Amino acid sequence: MSHRQIVLDTETTGLDPGLGHRIVEIACVEIVNRQPGVRDFHRYVNPGRPSDPGALEVHGLTEEFLSDQPKFRDVATDFLEFVAGAELIIHNAPFDVAFLNAELALLDLPPIAQHVAGVTDSLRLAKDLHPGKRNSLDALCERYAVDNSARTLHGALLDARLLAEVYLAMTRGQDSLIIDHAESGPAMRAAVAHTGPLDLVVRRASAEEAAAHAEYLAELDRVSKGACLWRAIAGEAAGTG
User: Fold this and answer.
1) What is the number of alpha carbons within 13 Å of residue 176 lying toward its C-beta?
2) Percent of the residues in the chain that have a pLDDT greater than 90, as a whole number
3) Could you say which of 3, 154, 181, 194 is catalytic?
């Protein structure tokens, strides 16, 4: 069974839905079995009110531009169909969830938690991994070598795409071996049942491939704070060689 995650980000007219602030942009990036998918969901939304000056400075979506965009009620069905049954990955999840729930409540729809498999707060995860460090999206992009040079304003789609890369880097090695047993089971059983001789062709890695592999392991060792088993094994092998 495939593991489907949705990295989600919103832009809003202000900081508090309790004060009548609304969503002006919503974006989702799909990840399936830890592979970024080809499907995105992105909509600008007419909030029916102006943005606070501070919010406008962050996202740059003017009242004039948004006036021609659909209302949230016009995009809600497509949005909920896109995220249905997935795990949501959100940076500072309580903020976005509060806005989503406020928008859904205005339509007499259940809160977002009832439409998805769960919500993971990538900010909470980052704080657990890097206590005492800056864990904004920009800081994490720098820490995990994710190119955020195009991020001059906070656009929901760009931020969701950056967060998808950051999240996969932060969780590298945790879920990398996800096997769809329903699909792979027959092939695996056939392989196990095979008792005849195997005629395998062994291709040695080129010098460039070996160097790229070593560079990858070095980065993995840095991210895992020295817990890369492959580098440890390679070091022991080199010491006994």
Assistant:
1) 7
2) 65
3) 154
